[in-house]
Amino acid sequence: MSAPETPPTPRDETAGDVFSGENRARLELDAKDVIARYPKPRSALLPLLHLVQSEEGFVSTAGIAFCAEQLGITTAEVTAVATFYTMYKRRPVGDYHVGVCTNPLCAVMGGDEIFAGLKEHLDVGNDETTADGKITLEHLECNAACDFAPVVMVNWEFFDDQTPESAKKLVDDLRLGKDVKPTRGPNSLCTWKQASRVLAGFDDGRAAEGPQAGAPSLAGLEVARERGWRAPEPAAAPAPADEEDAE
Amino acid sequence: MTTLTPILSRNWDRPDSFTLAAYRETGGYEALRAALGMTPDAIVDLVKASGLRGRGGAGFPTGMKWGFLPKDNPNPRYLVVNADESEPGTCKDMPLLLANPHALVEGIAIASYAINSRNAFVYVRGEVLHVIRRLRNAVAEAYEAGLLGKDILGSGFDLDVVVHSGAGAYICGEETALLDSLEGYRGQPRLKPPFPAVAGLYASPTVVNNVESIASVPGIVANGADWFTSMGTEKSAGFGFFSLSGHVTRPGQYEAPLGVTLRELLEMAGGVRDGRRLKFWTPGGSSTPIFTEEHLDIPLDFESVGAAGSMLGTRALQIFDETTSVVRAVRGWIEFYAHESCGKCTPCREGNFWMAQVLRRIEAGKGTEEDVAKLLDICDNLLGRSFCALGDGATSPVTSAIKYFREEFIAGTHTPAWELFPYQRTTRWASESVEEDA
């Protein structure tokens, strides 16, 4: 289970054409939009890194230079930030980033077994990409969905309550291009690049898709409804907000 | 007997609960209207009177935090909401934002008005794409309805709210690291003082509050401080989410008054899975010392949990039954801290790195006679010797697990943990095999 970390492969120095010509002009407009959200431009660095990742699928040397130019800071300053945060990838990532939570709660509930099973099934190690370029596998730390353990994230969408079998089927479906639906997310998966664009702050209009809550999120509410438990009424305040519940 | 008090979660079973229309149908934004008719100081006093304490782990009184902003500082003031929920076991703010983001947005508007801030930021962890969509959408809906932006509800009060996605770093849940990250730097903690109230975002007066703290404010404004203090205990007023996870029949979110016990919560959640026995649990995430069966009746409020040797933290109740190796869990947590240590402070960076190695060999049954003492010695050199609470928190699982289960660490000198506690027995799908080992 403690597979040795793979040494970083040389960066894709040929990438980065995307930051020239007409595409650059478009991205500069996006960057202006991002920078304008903040009282001080440098605050835009994290979203700008998400933005360049949405173009190439990772943060290349050219992407770093683009960010530095937009903000008027050095590439060393941008690199220091890009290498600090685990969501920025310095090497190309597959179309689907599959993350398996192996923090103790999920690990004990089966995350360790799921991760080991996927490594074998996909024939990759941690932070490696399948030969067809479809899937990058990574183990994750706690993703704030412990009541749905064990949890798998694909392109940062929730796939709750997984088993080794369901996780293998999930990656098989992804590789075959079949429709895959997150348990608490939109009706279909977006790509890794599209996800990065959402993180940069550009909406994809899919907020209303998918359920409002999973079953564990409602566990306490259901017990309260069954047993007739409610929050206390405000003593002298005007009509409480949840009047219609009182039936 | 304590009963549940669904407040923030009361509308979560509506399929459209996350929309502005649904939120308004259940009284949403009435508190904002009321608040805008009050003076800002009156709102600060109201929140002080409610006794609301920070719901992000530390439990600092929210109203007092607001009151610390210096009156004579000419710089702009900022409200920053900490939505970086990453403490292992903590899973309350993300479902709240997914199902009911307007509770936070309304709370932001009220809190910003109270502290006289025109710019608020929500720093939300990046690894939760749909949560970010829902939150951004709620902010957009609120702007469109005149609940954010210029001249909110005709009051003359202006407020801009920016949803800012993080990029994967547990340390950014620490408030000063969060501010550095929001300024576009590596997320490393700052030495305090100065506290953010004096020199926070862009060195301006700043309030940093947790999602659940801010989302609790509209209810206090709408229903009064007495309503809030009618729940909970004298020093731990009000309600909060208790997040049950792990070896429990019905894991999930249970919104209850502070002071509820794990015994009561487990009864509501159908008990430990398959009638098994509780072995250990965290009261508030992995950074809070573990508890055992003997702590089932400790009231889960700040004072009682503290008096029993742990911390209420984020009420992240991770439940582990008798099949679980405590050495395995602690090894995993320390690998987490070693990975997430920002590296700024030597005791934290090095201490966790070395503890992870010692714990790996104990787990593999290859520990040495000195290893338990070695772990405790490293913890001694770590606790209280770093800028932020990450280092302190890392010692919690180690020292508490050795306190309650020293024999398991000793057994690690000769027998692998996976032989003592076969790992296939702990999984979610292992439950059907319970009879055969009974």
- Our Rg estimate of chain A from Cα atoms comes to 22 Å
Largest interface (C-beta under 8 Å): A-B, 95 and 105 residues
Overall shape of chain B: it is globular
Radius of gyration of chain B: 22 Å
Order of helices and strands of chain B: HHHHEHHEHEHHEHHEEHEEHEHHHHH
Mean pLDDT score of chain A: 91
Structural class of chain A: alpha+beta
Binding site for [2Fe-2S] cluster (chain A): 101, 106, 142, 146
Keywords (chain A): 2Fe-2S, Iron, Iron-sulfur, Metal-binding
Biased composition (Low complexity) (chain A): 231-240
Family (chain A): Belongs to the complex I 24 kDa subunit family.
Can you characterise this structure?
The complex is a heterodimer of chains A (247) and B (438). Chain A is an alpha+beta fold and 247 residues long. Chain A contains eight helices and five strands; from the N terminus they run ααααβαββββααα. Chain A has helices at residues 21-35, 45-56, 61-71, 75-82, 104-122, 164-176, 192-199, 219-227; strands spanning 96-101, 128-129, 135-140, 152-154, 157-159. The termini of chain A are far apart. Mean pLDDT of chain A is 91; it is low at 6-10 and 237-247. Chain B has 438 residues and is α/β, with parallel strands linked by helices. Chain B folds into three domains: 20-229, 3-Layer(aba) Sandwich (Rossmann fold), CATH 3.40.50.11540; 239-321, Ubiquitin-like (UB roll); 326-423, de novo design (two linked rop proteins) (Up-down Bundle). Helices cover 42% and strands 11% of the residues of chain B. Chain B has 18 helices and nine strands. Chain B starts with 19 loop residues before the first helix and ends in an 18-residue tail after the last helix. At the A-B interface, α2, α5, α7 and α8 of A face α5, α7, β3, β5 and β6 of B. Chain A: Residues 226-247 are annotated as: Disordered. Chain A: This is NADH dehydrogenase subunit E. Chain A: Keywords: 2Fe-2S, Iron, Iron-sulfur, Metal-binding. Chain A: Its cofactor is [2Fe-2S] cluster.
